[in-house]
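Exercise: predict the fold of this chain.
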Amino acid sequence: MQTTFESRYAISPNEAKSMDTDGLRKNFLINKIFEADTIHLVLSHFDRYITGGVMPVNETVQLSNPDYLKAGYFLERRELGIINVGDKGTVTADGIAYELEYKEALYIGRGTKSVSFTSADQNSPAKFYINSTPAHCTYPTTKISKKEADIVELGSPETANHRVINKLLVNSVLSTCQLQMGMTELKTGSVWNTMPAHTHDRRMEVYFYFEVPEGQSVCHFMGEPQETRHIWMQNEQCVISPNWSIHSGSGTSNYTFIWGMAGENLDYGDMDHCAINELR
């Protein structure tokens, strides 16, 4: 087992305007999430958000505590959200085992000292996508299935954005300090996500794209509404979205993505919408 940890500074809109393709990718794209028996963690200075992935294959993988956090253990001052995007696996939190099937979620509260990850079958490993944010109090560790999610259907085939939003770890489903996570599934024939686009100056987001068919890609749009940029993304990659940036995408096929948010409030509808025909 090994852990990789990377810290990324916050980037201002003025800096982003001057970046070339390589600069944008280095600062905002997280290109590797899953690797056998490895934990990959990236901390963004936007709201101290940690994004990562765990794929246990040959062993049980323990959530480590990077020195950078200066904490007694990883969740001493943090909360954790997990969504399994692989085959069946188990997350054990302070001795209590939670079995997660594909697309099931788990919230783990602040103060949990031990977290470990195991796959049911090493030939078909689980893939635990994780997000973590600072936490000011402790809420109960809770498993959420898609049946328990707050589900909203938006868009239409005519505008190629027909999608189902599964709100999994949000305040309409369970209590969290600031972390919110959910999953948006695009219908066949639809390719646009989060369109019309928006910003929310009180929260940042991270998008994790998956179920992108082999040979296909997603073009993720970011930047200020009047100064947009794009990043081409592949299956099982993440992109950091600052609070000043739109976050939208269009694929060469339909796909699914997990959105995670953190910031000043838990109001899912707190969005500053951007008119489609005013984007630049």
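Check your answer against the key: The longest strand covers residues 203-210.
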